[in-house]
Design a protein that fits this description.
The complex is a heterodimer of chains A (519) and B (269).
Chain A lengths: L1 H28 L3 H12 L7 E6 L14 H7 L7 E3 L5 E3 L2 E6 L5 E6 L13 H12 L14 E7 L2 E6 L23 H4 L7 E7 L3 E6 L13 E6 L3 H9 L5 E3 L13 E6 L4 E6 L9 H10 L2 H9 L3 E3 L24 H10 L6 E8 L3 H14 L4 E8 L1 H10 L5 E6 L5 H5 L16 H12 L3 H18 L2 E7 L1 E6 L2 E2 L15 E2 L1
Parallel strand pairs in A: 1-10, 15-16, 15-17
Antiparallel strand pairs in A: 2-3, 4-5, 5-7, 6-7, 8-9, 9-10, 11-19, 12-19, 13-17, 13-18, 14-18, 20-21
Chain B lengths: L6 H22 L32 H37 L1 H16 L2 H12 L3 H27 L3 H8 L4 H9 L4 H24 L11 H8 L7 H29 L4
Helix pairs in contact in B: 1-2, 1-10, 2-3, 2-5, 2-8, 2-10, 3-5, 4-5, 5-8, 8-9, 8-10, 9-10
Classes of the chains: A alpha+beta (519), B mainly alpha (269).
Chain lengths: 519, 269
């Protein structure tokens, strides 16, 4: 026992000594140019254009069957394999994909789609209108018991002729069309086949999936956009560990690494470059609006005044984030209300005055529950705890497991304050409905009649400009009433090999590989 | 009795003494605040101002290590205390009473010992919530079987000595015999076990905090610092090195001290 413990201790020392030395040498490698030059010569020796890329991803797909898949990590890869009647472009606008055009009836209840001429599945068969109808009926829940989508609940799906399909809604829902980005798949495959060897219409076809290793895709030659995609083979390699992914990138085994941490940017050598941009996420500190003393709007305002968001962005994201003032990222340009982000610039005096007015002159104790697996949010909590000391609010941080967070905070609403990032949606309704009084995932416990009315009105509004106006009004209410402190949209950073070009950031969690090419 | 020398003892006592001094000092004086953030000085390498550099929020690592030593000692002492008290009681009863009682108690201890330590602690904090208190209780429970075994074997040796029989014949109550007449005989074994128990408790606390289940931020703990530093391992290796060395030193120190005490007390040497 004692021997082994000592041995363990000694091994630890040696390990630490070695890890301590190794990296510091690696650090020194960066400035001298000779070494870099050497590496470059080696790289350039075989002059030929690469026809395959390796992309680092953090997790396995949950299902290959596109109608079963729910994880955004799956969408990230399979965005290249499947398409719906419409799909999102890099600005978040919907463009026709399997359909060639569509129109919405005047009263907003009927959506009529025309099938794209000559569009083919990966197995070479032409897409028929029956395939389209089958796909959406399958999502609706007509085919299998384990696939049921509430989004199609009151929707009738009718085939008009062999080129036209019509969706009829019971009531106007301006966010409905988003649901038609879901995959169109062949109707003549075995039900289980979709999860084993899926077939779609996207720029890449599925080749194989080896669990916890890789997902392999190959160029689909008959894709409906000529000349797309450009790279022949794609491998999504699964790295559970970020530092392993980074090492593989630096070693040249990986060509593209989405989600590079800001702290690692300066490790990229000249062989790489990175693209950064908004990811349509809203990082916020929710304050349970039904719990004392946070039920008092003055207290919430005071907290907001006492928090220095600019400093959080600097401390936690190395300055690579966009300051927010309401629950909408500027990535949603058309619906984003500008100018709200500076409403609560840090003002300790004002915060103290507001607390005094609310009867909390001497501050209070409060707990922030934060999911322990998101270091980003834990760090944010640490900075906030430090900042709130200035107004005598004593913060206890409770880092809890993700599953516990989901149960206690997200579903159970049993918390005082929490920090989380709300991932982006294409439709503003899906983003802002979180604050609607009756919404079952309104974990802020926020309730405001005027707000509910705005959201309901916007949902049935068919004029896009008016709709955007209503959503902007809703954002103003959120800023005014502070159900949460809105922090930032952290930048999404993608590291790429220096000669890999054509990457576009999306406001949703996908990697579009179809436009990538090597120079 | 001839005075024996033990190198282990001196090295162990020196390391533990130094750490103890560091811990005591931290109550009165620390170079910098452990929570105040200074972003201008983020991830600075060791320098005269910051002996061990600064962390990702610009906090002084040395000060945080000092404060972390409080946690380490605190958790170590309390959890070993829990294990010692309960373990001695269980071991004494098992050893003194014997028979069925002994069987039942010791099989229960065996079961507890067979359970993987870190898994038990994980389960415990998952059920009762994270935090330093629950960590101490979990580690304390884990320490019980070891102390119970040592106490029991000591009791088995001593309980049939003539003086114990004498005491029993003149009507000394059992409790008094157990704790006044027998227990002092096995004190040295318990001291050794406590020292080594402290080492493993400190290591386990660091492990739990590393996993985010022990000490909660912003309070510094060596294990937490180690996990925070992991992200900056390449950019700022000294950050990981500092808490790593502290954990190693503490574990090594207490182990050597325990071994040293054993060497000194062992009549066979």
């Amino acid at each position: 026992m004692k021997r082994s413990l000592i041995a363990l201790g000694l091994t630890l020392v040696t390990m630490l000594v070695f890890t301590g030395c190794g990296p510091s040498e690696a650090n020194k490698v960066q400035p001298p140019e000779t070494k870099l030059a050497e590496e470059k010569v080696q790289e350039e020796a075989p002059v030929q254009v690469q026809d395959h890329i390796v992309v680092a991803v953090p997790q396995d797909p949950d299902y290959l069957d596109p109608h079963l898949a729910a994880a955004s990590g799956t969408d990230e890869m399979m965005f290249n394999v499947f398409e719906g009647l419409v799909k999102s472009d890099s600005e978040g606008k919907l463009i026709p994909a399997v359909s060639s055009e569509y129109k919405v009836s005047e009263e907003g209840l009927k959506y009529t789609f025309t099938l794209r001429e000559g569009i083919k599945f990966h197995n070479g068969k032409e897409v028929t209108i029956e395939d389209v109808a089958y796909s959406y009926k399958r999502i609706k829940g007509d085919v299998r018991e384990d696939i049921v989508s509430a989004a199609f609940e009151n929707v009738e799906i009718d085939v008009i002729d062999d080129k036209t399909i019509e969706f009829t809604l019971k009531e106007v829902n301006s966010g409905f069309i988003i649901n038609l980005t879901k995959a169109v798949i062949p109707s003549d495959m075995g039900e289980e086949e979709h999860n084993k060897h899926p077939i779609g219409t996207g720029p890449y076809k599925f080749v194989e999936y080896i669990p916890s290793q890789k997902v392999v895709l190959e160029k689909f030659d008959a894709y409906w956009i000529e000349g797309v995609p450009k790279i022949k083979n794609v491998e999504f390699r699964i790295f559970a560990d970020n530092s392993t992914a980074l090492m593989s990138l630096l070693a040249g085994e990986v060509d593209m690494y989405p989600r590079l941490g800001t702290e690692n940017i300066e490790m990229l050598t000249d062989d790489f470059y990175y693209i950064q941009g908004k990811q349509n996420m809203v990082q916020l500190m929710s304050m349970n609006n039904k719990v004392k003393p946070l039920n008092d709007v003055n207290v919430r305002k005071a907290i907001n005044y006492a928090i220095d968001v600019d400093m959080i962005i600097k401390a936690v994201a190395d300055g690579k984030g966009t300051k927010l003032g309401s629950n909408m990222s500027p990535a949603m340009a058309y619906y984003y209300q500008e100018g709200l982000e500076n409403t609560y610039n840090i003002d300790i005096e004002k915060a103290k005055a507001l607390l005094k007015a609310a009867g909390y002159e001497n501050g209070f104790d409060i707990t922030i529950k934060v999911p322990s697996n998101y270091e980003f949010h834990v760090n944010t909590a640490e900075v906030i705890a430090e900042q709130l000391k200035a107004v005598n609010i004593n913060v206890t941080i409770e880092a809890i497991e993700w599953s516990v967070w989901l149960e206690e905070v997200y579903a159970g609403r049993d918390y005082e304050m929490t920090i989380i990032g709300l991932t982006g949606k294409l439709d503003p309704h899906n983003i802002l409905v979180r604050y609607e009084s009756q919404y079952d995932r309104n974990f802020m416990n926020y309730s405001n009649e005027a707000y509910d009315k705005l959201i309901a009105e916007a949902l049935t509004e068919t004029d896009e400009d008016k709709r955007a106006f209503l959503y902007k009004e809703a954002q103003k209410i959120l800023t005014e009433e502070v159900p949460a402190v809105y922090i930032m949209d952290p930048d999404f950073i993608v590291a790429l090999k220096h000669n890999l070009k054509g990457y576009k950031l999306y406001p949703i969690y996908v990697q579009d590989l179809s436009n990538l090419y090597f120079e | 009795m001839q005075k024996k020398k033990s190198l282990n003892f001196y090295i162990g006592a020196f390391i533990v003494g130094a750490l103890f001094l560091l811990m005591v000092t931290s109550y009165f004086y620390m170079p910098y605040s452990v929570t105040e953030m200074n972003l201008a000085e983020k991830l600075q390498p060791p320098s005269v101002q910051h002996l061990m550099g600064t962390d990702h929020f610009g906090r002084d690592i040395f000060s945080r290590l000092m404060q972390g030593s409080q946690t380490a000692f605190y958790v170590g002492l309390i959890s070993v205390g829990i294990g010692l008290c309960i373990g001695v009681i269980i071991g004494s009863i098992a050893g003194y009473v014997g028979g069925r009682v002994d069987d039942v108690l010791m099989r229960f201890m065996d079961a507890l010992m067979a359970f993987p330590g870190i898994l038990f602690a994980l389960l415990f904090v998952a059920v009762f919530g994270v935090g330093i208190f629950n960590t101490m209780v979990a580690l304390g429970i884990l320490a019980i079987p070891n102390f119970a075994r040592i106490t029991r074997s000591g009791f088995l040796q001593v309980k049939n000595f003539t003086y114990v029989d004498m005491a029993r014949t003149i009507g000394v109550p059992s409790i008094r015999i157990m704790f006044v007449h027998i227990l002092p005989n096995i004190m040295s074994a318990l001291v050794v076990a406590s020292s080594i128990g402290l080492a493993s408790a400190i290591l386990s606390e660091a492990g739990l905090s590393y996993l985010g289940l022990g000490v909660q931020p912003p309070n510094p703990s060596w294990g937490r610092m180690l996990s925070e530093s992991q992200k900056y391992l390449i950019k700022a290796p000294y950050y990981a090195l500092a808490p790593g060395v502290m954990i190693t030193l503490a574990v090594l120190g207490f182990n050597l001290l325990g071994d040293g005490i054993r060497d000194l007390r062992d009549p066979r040497k």
